[in-house]
Amino acid sequence: MRNSLKVAKWEIKRNMTNKSFIISLLSTPVIFLAFLFIPMLFDKSNSEENVSVYLYDELGIWNEVQEVVNESEINNWTLMQTKIQEAEMQNDLPDMEQSVYIALTEAGLEQGQIKMYMSDDLDKLSPYEASILEQPLRQLQLERLGLSEIQKETIANQVSVVPVSVDEAEAKGVALGEADPLKRIIPGAFAGVILFSIVMTGMMIFQSASQEKKEKVAEIILSSLTPVELMQGKIIGYFILGITQVIVWLAVALPAIMWRFELPLMEYLLVPELFLLLFIAFAGYLLFAAIFVAIGSTVEDMTATSNFQGMVIMLPFLPLIFIGPILADPSGVIAQVGSFIPVTAPAILLLRLSLLEEWPWVEIGIAVVILVISIWLFMKLAGKIFKTGILMYGKNATPKEIWKWMWA
Amino acid sequence: MTNVLTVKNLGKSFKLKQIIKNISFDVRKGEIMAILGPNGAGKSTTIRTIMGIMYPDEGSIEFNGHAENEIPRQKIGYLPEERGLYKNVKVMDMILYLADLKDYPKKKAKERALSYLAKFGLEGKDKVSVEELSKGMGQKVQFIASIIHEPELLILDEPFSGLDPVSQETFKQEIRELANNGTAILLSSHQMNVVEELCDRLYMIHRGEKVIYGAMEDVKNEYANFKCTIKGQNPITLLETIPNVLRIEQNGDVTVLYLTQDVIVPLWLRKLPEQLTVQELSIDKISLHEIFIDIATDQHQLPEGVGSHA
Question: Which among B80, B87, B93 has the least Cβ separation from residue A220?
Answer without folding.
Answer: B80
